[in-house]
Amino acid sequence: MADKTKKPVIFLAFANDRDDTVNYLRNLPEEARQIREPLQRARRDGLCELVELANATADDIFRVFQDPEYRDRIAVFHYGGHANGYQLLLESASGSPQAADAGGLAAFFGQQRGLDLVFHNGCSTQQQVQGLLDASVSVVIATSRAIEDQVAMQFSKLFYQGLAGGASIRTAYKEAEAAVQTSRGGNMRALYFGDASKSAQESIVADRWPWDLYLRGGAESVAHWSLPAAVGDPLFGLPPLPPQDLPASPFCHLNWFDREHAEVFFGRGHQIRELHDLVTSAGTPPIVLLYGQSGVGKSSILAAGLIPRLEQAYGVFYLRRDFNTGLLGSLRSAFKQAGTSVSVSDSMHLAQYWLEAERKLGKPLIIILDQVEEVVTRPNPDLPQEAADFYDELEAIFGKRNDRPAGRLILGFRKEWLAEVEARLANHNLPRAKVFLERLGRLGVLEAVQGPTRSPRLLTQYGLTVEEGLPEIIADDLLADDASAIAPTLQILLTKMWAKATELNYEHPQFTQQLYQSLKREGLLLRDFLDQQIERIRKKYPEVVKSGLLMDLLAFHTTPLGTAGQCSAAQLEPAYSGFGQELSDLLLQCQDLYLLTTANDANRDVSRATRLSHDTLAPLVRERFDKADEPGQRARRVLSNRVPDWMDGKTGQPLDETDLQIVESGRTGMRKWTADEQRLVDASRRLRARRNRGRRILQLAGIIAVVMIALFAVLAFWQARTARYNMVTAHFLVAGAASEKGQPAEALYWFWRAYSDAGSNDTRRLNARNLIGSWSRTLGTQLRHDDTISSVAFSPDNRTVLTGSDDRTARLWDVATGNPQGEPLRHKDHVSVVAFSPDGKSLLTGSKDHTAQCWDASTGQPKCAALQHAAAVTAIAFSDHGQTVVTGCEDGTV
Description:
This protein is α/β, with parallel strands linked by helices and 894 residues long. It has 32 helices and 28 strands. The strands form 8 sheets. A 6-stranded mixed β-sheet has the order 2-1-3-6-7-8, sandwiched between helices. A 5-stranded parallel β-sheet has the order 10-11-12-9-13, with helices on both faces. It has a 4-stranded antiparallel β-sheet with strand order 19-20-21-22, with no helix packed on it. The N and C termini lie far apart (86 Å).
């Protein structure tokens, strides 16, 4: 890799006519000394390096430019000596004058990537200017006629004195011009060599300043180049950005910066330089691993920073892993775009197509494959060997050093997958280099805020000014949270500030501390952004938010691992088939508010695909979705809790009436039910219909029972059952009311009461148990055993819950946290029943191992020997004073 600490080089070349005493420039050595002195000071200050040739030949000049030490680092070339419109008078090896064709030199200079300024301080070099500009030299300083020796020496000395002092090219030029005119007076003819009035035309020329500063179109900003900027600019020497129109806004909100934003992409120069050196320098590994946390700006660095600077010398193809074709199919599509004969089903190794693509393009091929981690986070079940096949193919391409293509492969992924990617590459003995993208640092934040004000072209386009001290305040605020995603948060802030500033003053928007503080009070973080955008949608589509459909749709664009997923129209339309135009309107609204964005896939066959506007939103969406209490989310939780018993053709327990009502109420706030969910709901509806018919029969029987109360003594028994039934029903109703009031803990308590009071043969006992599990999940607390939980009891103060399980243990749990208390209370067989003493200090458990055991609630130790029984213990209870226990057995004994 190139040493990024190297400074720009200023190359001074001088040539004289030592054979001709008339043409010999006696002041040329003095001119060289006067230029050298300020530049030597700049060199000592660490601003540049200096190369000087006193008797320059063409070969000498070529040799310096081609020296590996100076290649693409020479920023300024200065020539002092004789010249005309078509030639520079250099020296031969013998010291005699030798003309060098200006056109050939211009073509040579055009190949020097770091060369920004050519200063021809020769006799008359104006006619050489256009050739230099056409050859992509950014700035040229040249003369219109032969200049008086002393004037040429004074002007060049003053120019380099200004440049060495930190002035820009334009400023140093203007300062030197003003100084010469001040010392020489206003007579321009006095600046020229010889008789300037030989002809009328020459007289006109002699009435103007003899030097001119010429700028290549599209490179006007180079006039502001300075040595300090070059030393601090890691992009110095890289190929210039291709000329293109500027975007409407200098900020991109949550969308990544793309190629058209290259000129307004700031803050990542060091990473761009590092990547550029890795993929362009000889001897670097053929595979580059680019990784960082979600939201670090990886896609922006590639699309707006690296790719535009590679396009001239390389064939560059940026791809994101395609779900349908996998990593290998995505890689294959690059060669198809490059014009090779590769096909999707082609079994030939891609190494041959890589070489074919480089032959067709006439330059090395660089392929960037992003989101490699999705082979794990979003696996395609139809491609079980996707990862293995991909890395096998990479070995075929890069395994043999002598057969490798000239280009490079960049693999982009999130940092948590580095170990897996490296292990795969190591198993195939593939060399690789790593570039870790850290979150945007302080200097990057400062540059991103100030960037649109640093260039005259950007100032003309956007007219933005930034109040002094504001960038530092923004950087301090953003970097205070060391776990936040700085880059997207910064872009949200800057986009908000830009929108407000242009609203206040469209022609000359201003970023002020007052504006920043007002927006800061509205909230800068993505969580606030998500909340604000949802509220904006609520105002336009209140039912969509109230029903839960919005959160369901956003969560549909995430993966279970909390990353952003991509949804095509073919996935969305069947999942939300009942919503029609409502879904289309909601998708458009989400895109307008930057919650969703149209996917920018390399695979153009994927149409109307949408994804979250940034990966950083995914965990926030999942968190909000999991905690939401809208009907759609409540229905999803009930279904997700119960549908596993109905998957793979199984038939489980139907929903009780309460859960069925929740699911039916939430249907308009969630995606379409799956086939298994539909079977569960249909079975639950049939059960409800049967129960309704049964209720009508029972109501009739109740009337008859009242009439014939005197005739049927069994009525008393029936009344007891009815009372118990009604009590359990009341518990369910109170739980439902608590749910509607947003009191899940209260609802959980009444479901427990329903479970405790329901008879062993009452099917609602099972329903209550299931609801306890469902609502525990809603509360974010799950009490887990290794097998079925068969019994539950709350402590008298409701702070502790005791559970018995078929895993042969009973456990105490803290209700507030869901954490277990102490060690498990162990039996030799299923624990079927559990109970608390009235004072909560003792526990009683009954087991199928024919024993009941009394335990100390505080220590978990047995308080006495186990109570032996002849059969499984099925019932236990404490007396009111807690000093006596009663147990019941499976054999019918008490």
